[in-house]
Amino acid sequence: MPSPSLSPAKPDIKAIRLTNCRLFLPHSASVLVPQDLWISPTTGKILNPQRAFFDANITPSETYDLGGRIVAPGFIDVQLNGAYGFDFSVPSEDYGERLKGVVNRRLVGTGVTSYCPTLTSQREEVYAKTLPFLSAPHSRNASDGSESLGAHCEGPFINPERRGIHKCELLQIPTGFDKLEACYGAEHLAPSSTSISSTSSSSTIAPTIAMVTLAPELDRSQTIIRELHRRGIVASIGHTAASTTEAQEAVQQGASMITHLFNAMNQPHHRTPGVFGMLGSNNSSGGGDELVASNEKKKKPFFGLIADDIHVHPAMVWIAFAAHREGCILVTDAMSVLGLEDGEYKWTNGEIIVKEGGRVTLKGTEGTIAGSCVTLIECLNNMVRNTKVIAPVLLRCITENPARMLGIADRKGVLAPGADADLVVLSEYDVPVGPPNLKVEEVWKFGVRVFPSGTETEETKKEKEKQGVVEQSGENDMEGRPVRSFL
Fold first, then answer.
1. Is this prediction's pTM over 0.85?
2. Residues 6+ apart with CB under 8 A from 62
3. Contact indicator for 403, 413 with CB cutoff of 8 Å
4. Is 333 a catalytic residue?
5. Active-site entry in 77, 333, 420, 422
6. 187-241 pLDDT, tens per residue?
7. Positive or negative, the Cα torsion across 277, 282, 284, 287?
């Protein structure tokens, strides 16, 4: 991975050193590595300490003592329907303002620094009014909070038999790619392009739509999957009655994701395993694959899991994770009721959803599940409790794995020089049974601490004032260097 461009010609680059911490490095032997991390609020990137010091004469202007806590990449949620009373699928005159002020600035406090705002099956006019607000932002402003990575369009090209709470009259048959362009807008499906950035030599501009969920067994879906893949848009298999063979063909055409595995699809049977059967295919990452001829190995897709203890039984969560841990992605599938009190709330298309504790159902049905109301850190802790896998190992399911699935692991989901300095500081706490759980203590976006509010040095305060975040100055250590400590 390339390091950010540093040279003595750019003396204005500031550096912050995070010390006395354990970095989440999933490919290391111990997963958590005691090591300092250098970041820059100027470039918003993670720095290479050696290059910064020896090549660019940069020394940290601030040091943060994290008291042995864990530092992980910012969390990524690729299926989020809304939160805090805001529904991505409901247009309004103040849509953009509420998206930023209500969702992004509150969501970041849960550790989610990037996400794919998800639109359920809607009419064409809804996509026309909402998608322009859901593309990845061109600015890198930490005060904006969590950022979109591009929209996830979940429907309307799904199987009516597995529609879940999607309204049947809104569903469409994908007779050709022009049908998608007419539905979503051709401008929102434009292929990825490259542009010059102020912080690097070039950067990729992704389509407004980052991901499309569709049923591969529908007419012409396989051709459409191939075209989505060519354009750099993730094709995800979901709301489907596809057989294992049909799902495997979709993967061969370019599909690389399964939307909320086990939900809204045929359930696995020992004779007809359905979509889940792909996780039993041989590939180069599973045990015993050295016995399989290379030309017989089949690619396994990534898959989303809603680990809220409601959508999927814990035993099935463990089976899926054990079958393909490198592809496991935890998602919330959270609705607009996330963060709200229990009660009845209007949903899209005039329907009502009911929130009772951690369960969200569609009113007027026999308990049909209507998304969730959990946070991503809650999903991770649920999985820790149910699988007994230690939390640091599972962090990959909400950081690197979703970044790899979206093709952005060069800048998101990893702690590596050149990647965005989107960070979560985590503490561990004991629970009655099983390994310790994790708690979000602090969140950094583009090298600036955005959660919680607290004390900062004067230098960081000035940087935050430029980005719209104002906080008080902190104290210096005995050698005159600014230090923030958790001890």
1. yes
2. 16, 17, 457, 459, 460, 481, 482, 483, 484
3. yes
4. yes
5. 333
6. 999 876 654 344 444 455 667 999 999 999 999 999 999 999 999 999 999 999 9
7. positive
